[in-house]
Specification:
It is a single chain. Helix content is 5%, strand content 43%. Strands 1, 2, 3, 4, 6 and 8 form a six-stranded mixed β-sheet that branches. A hairpin with a 6-residue loop joins strand 24 and strand 25. The two termini are 28 Å apart. The relative contact order is 0.13.
Amino acid sequence: MDRRRFLVSAGVAAAAGLERTSSVWAKVAPAQRLPAPDARLRIEPCTLEISPGVSVKTTAYNGTVPGPMLRMREGVPFTLDVTNATGTADIVHWHGLATDAHNDGAMEEGSPMIPPGETLRYHLTPRPAGTRWYHTHATAKDNLELGAYSGQFGFLLVEEGRDPGRYDQEVFLAVHHWEPHFVPMVESMRASSANAPLTTGSDVGYKYATFNGHRLGAGEPIRVKQGQRVLMHLLNASATENVVLALPGHRFHILAMDGTPVPTPCSVEVLSLAVAERVDAIVEMNTPGVWVLGSTLDAERDQGLGVAVEYAGQAGPPVWRDPAPADWDYLQFAAASGPAATPDAVVELTFRDIGRREGSLFDTWTINNKSWPDQEPLLVERGKRYRLVFRNGSGDQHPMHLHRHSFEVTRIGDRATRGLVKDVINVMPLDSVSVDFVADNPGDTLLHCHQQLHMDYGFMQLIRYRS
C-alpha cells in the first residue's frame, strides 16, 4: 500500500474528520452541501521546464513546483480539499503541524490514502506558528517517480504576528533534485552527493538540481538593492540529498530553524540543510554585484543548484567564490547555558544498515535491530517528557523527523545543550543526538528518517499513547 497528499476548514463541525467530498456531494441536497474549502490542491502529472531545453516529467500540486503557497493563521481552523488526479493512491503530510493523527497525512498513523480520481477534505487548526511545509508521504520503494522524488511539495506558513525584525523583501527557496536513478557503485556518488565525505553514499543519484523548479541560469534572479535586508525562507525538499549552501560576500543571520525561533540568533557564511529542514534567515545586501546563491559543491552547482542574486544597476554572469571551510554546529544557535529539564523516561534507539534483502535493490534499515513494520510501538503517557537518544551505527547521515510534535535538542555527541526546538535533526555518521519531547498530542505518532530511500526500507517506528 502507498502513502501520499492536501488541506481545508470552515468553522463548523466534524473537526477531526476527513471527508471524501465526492461521495458527500453525491448524497446530500444542494442546501446541505459542505461549505467551500479555504484552499484546494490537485495532485496531477506535469511537465516542468527546469532550464531552456531541459524538461522533467513529474507529479505536482496544481501543476506548479513548488505547489501553491499556503498562509494560515495560528489557531484559526483551515480546510483544504485535495483531489488526486493521478492513477496512484496518494496522501499529503502537513509537516511540522501539531495536528491530529487522522489529518496528519501519514498512512502509518491511520490517515487515509486518497484513491485515484477522488477528493479528500483535510481539517487543520494550524499550530505552532512558523515556516512549515506540505509534501507527499507516499511510499516509492524502487519506483523513483513516486513519493519525495516527485515535485509534490510546497511551503506552508503559519502566521501569528511575531515580528522577525525589519526586512525589505521576503524570498522562499526550495531545493529539489531531479531525474533520480539507481547507482550500484557507492564510489561514483562521492563527487556529487552533498552527504559525502562523511557517508558511504546513497544508492540514488540525480541528474539535475533546482531552486523553486529552476536550474542556475534559468528563471528570474533574486533582484535586490544595496542596503536591503532580505528575509529568506529556505527548505530542503530533496528526497535524499542534504545540501550545503553559501552566497559569496554575504552571511545568513539565522532567526529560526524548522519554523521555531532559535534562542541565539547568529550569522554564518555557510548554511547546512538536511532533508526536510527549514531555515529562516536575514541576509543583508551589502556586497554589490551579481552572485550565485548555491551549493558549495561544484558538481551540484553544475547540476543546477543555484540562483542568481542581482543587485540593482549590476550586470553580467553570476559569480561564485568558494567560502572558507566551516563545520556546521547546531549548538551555536542553542541557549547559552544551563541543562535541559530532566525527562521522565529515556529511550535509546540505534540505527543500522543490514544490507539488501533478497529481491531488493536497496539496503534495509533497522531501529534497535528491527525494521518497519515489525517493531512494537514505543508506548508513552500523556503529559510526560521523553528523551529519545538517537545512536547512528551507520556511515550515513540521518535527518530524523517526529510527526505532530516538536522536540528540544538536549545533547549532540558529548555536549549537552538546551533551548533549540526543531522537528528534524540530522544525526551524523557514528554519532549520537538526544532530543526531548512532551507527549502532549495524543494519537499514533510516526518517527522516521526523512530520506525517502531509508524510510521506504524500514527506517520508521510508531510512538503510541497509552490509553
